[in-house]
Amino acid sequence: MVRVRLRNPDRVEQVDGPMTVGELLDHLDVNPTTVLVIAGGELVTADAELDEGTEVEIRPVISGGAGAPRCVVCRAPAVIEEPRHRAAWCPTHFVDHVHNQVRKAIDHPLAGRPRERMCSYDDHLLVAVSGGKDSLALWDVLLTLGYRVDGLYIGLGIGGYSRRSQQICEEFAAARGARLHVVDLAETYGYSTPSGARATTRSACGVCGLSKRYVFNKVAVDHGYDVVATGHNLDDEAATLLGNLLRWHDDFLARQRPVLPATGANQVRKVKPLYRLSEREMAAYCVIRGIDYVVEECPLVDGNTGHEHKEMLNAVERSAPGAKAQFLFGFLDRADAFAEESRTGDDPVLGACGQCGMPTVGETCAFCRQRERILSTLPVLATAPAVSSSAVSSSAVSSNADAACDDLPTGSSHR
Hints:
Elements: E1 2-6, E2 11-15, E3 19-20, H1 21-28, E4 35-39, E5 42-44, E6 49-50, E7 55-60, E8 80-82, E9 87-89, H2 91-107, E10 124-129, H3 133-144, E11 148-155, H4 159-176, E12 180-184, H5 185-189, H6 193-200, H7 204-222, E13 227-229, H8 234-247, H9 250-255, E14 259-260, E15 269-271, H10 279-289, H11 305-319, H12 323-333, H13 335-342, E16 351-352, E17 359-360, H14 366-377, E18 397-398
Parallel strand pairs: 1-7, 10-11, 10-13, 11-12, 12-18, 13-15
Antiparallel strand pairs: 1-2, 3-6, 4-5, 4-7, 8-9, 14-15, 16-17
């Protein structure tokens, strides 16, 4: 049996299990876009498995009512509580809260550098969108705040999941009259994420991450963007930090920060404006703003240790609200000192890749090496066009990167 607690109305039910969250919501006739589902204290998605004995809480995001907490701003019934802030908000003031947190992240991203901003209103921004809640919420926030911002979707070739994700991004852009670049890996570079993983025996996440970082930077350079923004949230960054500390990846730790400046030619700045906001806050923002997004996780994500690290941090957060933020922000306050201690005096010098011209520390960049290996292993794909800027499509509606150079550590394991 799965024990379910539903808020507003507040009731408890026992449902025969095991099942997925999506199956549970169907059984209860609950619209998945209007609720947050929490299992074992963790926000879960529709494809999450619920085992026998699991306790599930279903919270309506837009609720209110006599028993609801009051908005910290206007005292109206609140729709979401955030223990970390010891606050609750009505829909209007929760949206304001998210916008204010993004403004704060943009205006003051680094301790000790009060005048250094992520971006300015003069910059032309490119948001890497996946169809998920974080990247689409980020695009919505930046558009609402008045930034010049377009989107980039990369088709990874993951069957119906990729098709659905692209459709969501295209519909989002069309509804707002925004520009969306689309790059299809198979059409442009001759391989998909699944075929690349098979050819290289690397994890799908490894092939995907390297490919996306390269394409993010290349599209931004080719189309004259100043900044690439990704939807990494507080949970993502804290989990990445934990993983890097557990393995003592000094190079990654030295580069993990919400702003990565361009350090050479053919590079653009990389920023993470959502690093102050949790996964749950971003899901609630999408529901309140009516943003449709892909709820399911990538089907190739199995084995990604980032999920285990998130579970560890969620366990701490349940007993000590705010622990994740203190962990991440405390590190970022000391990031410059840590980076200085990590310097060896022989930092790599960036040059240009002999094949594509993008930044690299060797003769050939990591992306071109990966692509060459894939195409040599999968000869049926070897007729794909050469790497060139002309292979990237762009239109008014035509379709998450940390390092401009594929040979440098990313400081993040995700998107």
